[in-house]
Amino acid sequence: MYFSHISKQLCEHDAKRTIDCYLYWMKAYIIFIGKTHSNHCDEKAVEQFLSYL
What are the phi and psi torsion angles at 4 (to 5°)? Predict the structure, then answer.
């Protein structure tokens, strides 16, 4: 799973709580964009997500 890959990379440098926070926001963004592949998202999608928050 993608989150496992990211977690392993982050574990080398960051605290567990920091990693948990990153993964939480990544998951929230993926749910917001409707599980669309990130290659199909642009700056506007990020701006919409941040405005939504």
Answer: -65, -40
